[in-house]
Design goal:
The protein is α+β, with helices and mostly antiparallel strands. The protein contains 13 helices and 16 strands. The protein has a 5-stranded antiparallel sheet with strand order 9-10-16-12-13, with no helix packed on it. Strand 7 (about 265), helix 11 and strand 8 (about 290) form a beta-alpha-beta unit. Helix 4 packs antiparallel against helix 5 and helix 5 runs antiparallel to helix 6. The longest helix has 30 residues, at about 95-125. The two termini are about 45 Å apart.
């Protein structure tokens, strides 16, 4: 819970700056998880003390007065809110729509607070409610979850109808591409031609979409947007139809394949130099690859030839396979995002994957016809999987072992 205070407390900076890997996830999600987990954990310990420890502190009038004070304070705050007296102190409450939403949520919170206070008061007083403590707590939780989540999916629009609006367009793209691996640019400054999640629904690869974790190297730098779409294998692109005053789809002819061969490389190790070169008019991605590290193997003949072929035989989320044929040594460029954990194998032998064109993958290819396999094999992910399984085993053992070692009732009575 202290971590969820963010920059208002030192704990967030400590974790964010010094704990390895902690800065790799969404900040908002981390705070939400820590707040929810921390509150649930503290509530669990408190309830266990109330139910089983039976400490005199919880039976004292002082503790009872604390519960009543919290309930009274919640009621006073709610009355101040609905009366409008707090609107002058909080700017966001001056908006009518926001004020109505806050009042509605405040009433739900007050209702849950009253039920919780009655539940705790009954436990403190030692009433028969104690016998039904478990059922009562489950009821309170169900009510809380229903109030919070009951209207989370309250749209009157059927999801099938919503996503089917673009079905003619996605069907056209699938038929026209005829199985070719291509991407679609469906958004520009005028608007969106398809929904953000349309690609996931209809298995159409979009340049855009929705993701809470935007990669740092998402799009390659270039001299213009059309050049960027070419490098990103975007065969279909959104455009404005001036006569109809609407967005439409166009078919590009200058786009690069998902995988292609080049025979020249420019080695640039710093970002500024890469940006400057890729944004210049002299950069032609179909002829030269911009690699940010020096390949181990050098190419002597850098003249271009079109006598190559690259065909995908398999394409999955975590693996892909190609058959590549080249008359001389060169570089296989894949319009796939470079990401640690992707490993390449040529005819079964491991091969280094370099980063090219700012955010794409490139592999050194020898003369001849070869089978190229790429698989996502993340060592940190595999290590985390084993750690999670080991932790799960320890948790199960921590539950089972005490149950096995616990004396039976008959043995206790005999003793």
């Amino acid at each position: 819970m202290l971590f969820a205070l963010g920059g208002n407390f030192v704990l967030h900076k400590l974790f964010f700056d010094f704990v390895p890997g902690f800065a790799k996830f969404r900040n908002a999600a981390r705070m939400g998880v820590f707040l929810t987990f921390g509150a649930a954990l503290l509530s669990g310990f408190s309830l266990q003390n109330l139910l089983y420890e039976k400490r005199p502190l919880y039976e004292s009038p002082h503790f009872r007065n604390i519960v009543l004070a919290i309930l009274g304070l919640s009621l006073v705050l709610y009355l101040l809110l609905i009366s409008g007296l707090l609107s002058g102190s909080f700017e966001f409450l001056k908006d009518n729509a926001t004020f109505s939403a806050v009042k509605k949520d405040a009433l739900a919170s007050l209702f849950v607070t009253i039920l919780s206070a009655l539940f705790l008061y009954g436990i403190i007083k030692g009433t028969p409610l104690l016998r039904w403590a478990g059922l009562a707590s489950v009821a309170v939780l169900l009510i809380d979850m229903s109030i919070f989540g009951g209207e989370q999916n309250n749209s009157k629009t059927n999801p099938d109808e919503y996503f089917n609006r673009s079905r003619p367009l996605t069907d056209f793209i699938k038929q026209d591409s005829n199985g070719e691996l291509v991407r679609v640019n469906m958004r520009n400054q005028q608007g969106m031609l398809m929904d953000r999640n349309q690609g996931l629904m209809d298995r159409v690869m979009l340049m855009e979409g929705y993701t809470p974790l935007v990669l740092q190297r998402y799009l390659p730098p270039s001299r213009d947007w059309s050049h960027t779409c070419d490098m990103m294998n975007a065969k279909y692109r959104v455009a404005a139809d001036e006569q109809r005053q609407a967005l439409t789809i166009t078919r590009a002819t200058s786009y690069l394949p998902r995988a292609y061969m080049v025979y020249d490389a420019r080695i640039l190790t710093d970002s500024a130099s890469i940006f400057q070169f890729m944004q210049s008019k002299g950069f032609e991605p179909s002829r030269v690859a911009v690699i940010d590290s020096d390949p181990a193997l050098k190419i002597s003949d850098t003249s271009y030839t079109a006598q190559w072929s690259a065909h995908f035989t398999s394409y999955k989320l975590n693996s892909m396979s190609l058959t590549v044929s080249t008359p001389k040594d060169g570089f296989l460029v894949l319009s796939e995002i470079y990401y640690p954990g992707w490993n390449a194998y040529i005819d079964g032998e491991p091969q280094t994957v370099y980063r090219a064109n700012w955010n794409q993958r490139v592999i050194h290819m020898r003369t001849g016809t070869h089978k190229v396999d790429m698989r996502f094999q993340s060592t940190p992910f595999e290590r985390g999987t084993w750690i999670s399984l080991a932790t799960l085993a320890l948790c199960i053992g921590g539950i089972v072992v005490p149950l096995v070692k616990r004396p039976r009732n008959s043995e206790q009575q005999a003793a």
